[in-house]
């Protein structure tokens, strides 16, 4: 199932921050502007204990953008070539793009709420849950 395609690499996406401190802010992403794919699924995580590392998987096809709506999330990504990057999300107008074939983990502050936009609906067959399998498939 390893068809080689080029999606780019993990990177920060900055959404517009419209407003001011007196009234508050709004950030917006409209179809085909900042998110580099059509969003087919959205989900959020919250109340994750700080000692827990989530993620620990890669996808064959799914692309995602992760946003810390509140709190702090440390996202670590690893590409098939071994490139490792660390992203600290703590501004609700910034997200990190996770392309397919990218191993990723997330660690949260207890108050963190993570919003995820995904390019596909949930399909367990799209997940690579074993790090050894990730290295075998993409390495």
From TrEMBL:
<dbReference type="InterPro" id="IPR011051">
    <property type="entry name" value="RmlC_Cupin_sf"/>
</dbReference>
<dbReference type="InterPro" id="IPR008894">
    <property type="entry name" value="QdtA_cupin_dom"/>
</dbReference>
<dbReference type="InterPro" id="IPR014710">
    <property type="entry name" value="RmlC-like_jellyroll"/>
</dbReference>
<dbReference type="Pfam" id="PF05523">
    <property type="entry name" value="FdtA"/>
</dbReference>
<protein>
    <submittedName>
        <fullName>FdtA/QdtA family cupin domain-containing protein</fullName>
    </submittedName>
</protein>
<feature type="domain" description="Sugar 3,4-ketoisomerase QdtA cupin">
    <location>
        <begin position="10"/>
        <end position="136"/>
    </location>
</feature>
